[in-house]
Write a structure and sequence with these properties.
By secondary structure, the protein is of the alpha+beta class. It contains five helices and six strands, in the order αβαββαβββαα. The protein has a four-stranded antiparallel sheet, with helices on one face. The protein has a two-stranded antiparallel ribbon with strand order 5-6.
């Protein structure tokens, strides 16, 4: 194919043949929060999403109201397709509990969040330039090596 590619490049330089290249979609995983109560709701959402072009896998978790779609899809299109089923849906607003620096901050703690998750918010993240926990623990009473530092 190398010779054919170079030949087509050579010819296209003289004839200025322009082709529009399609924008390639990136393979990604989209997490959506959808309120599902029964098997019918679950089946309706799964059928709607799995019929989309580019979808490879669809995983549903009714207990935490989460739909995970992976494939060559756009998050907004998946969200609109789920909303067309009549269900209230939003992009997954939660992050794992251990990822957040301040899980009990005003915007982060949510009683409706599934176990082990807190709501994603700016207030729960540490401020840039704030002292790290590692530095603070150097002078802690629980640190057995604190006296060697001082």
């Amino acid at each position: 194919m190398g010779a054919l590619d170079s030949l087509s490049e050579y010819i296209s330089d003289y004839f200025h043949v322009s082709r529009k290249r399609k924008k390639r979609k990136v393979k990604q995983t989209v997490n959506i929060k959808v309120k599902m109560d029964c098997d019918g709701c679950e089946r309706r959402v799964k059928n709607a999403v799995s019929s989309m072009k580019g979808v490879e896998t669809v995983e549903l978790n009714r207990k935490i109201h989460k739909v995970t779609v992976s494939g060559y899809v756009e998050p907004k299109k998946v969200l609109k397709r789920v909303e067309r089923t009549g269900k209230k849906a939003e992009i997954w607003p939660y992050v794992p509990y251990n990822v957040v620096a301040y899980p009990y901050a005003v915007g982060a703690y949510d009683k409706k969040a599934p176990a082990g998750y807190v709501r994603r918010s700016d207030q729960s993240q540490p401020l840039p330039g704030a002292p790290d926990d590692v530095i603070m623990s150097l002078f802690s009473d629980e640190n057995p090596n604190a006296c060697t530092v001082m």
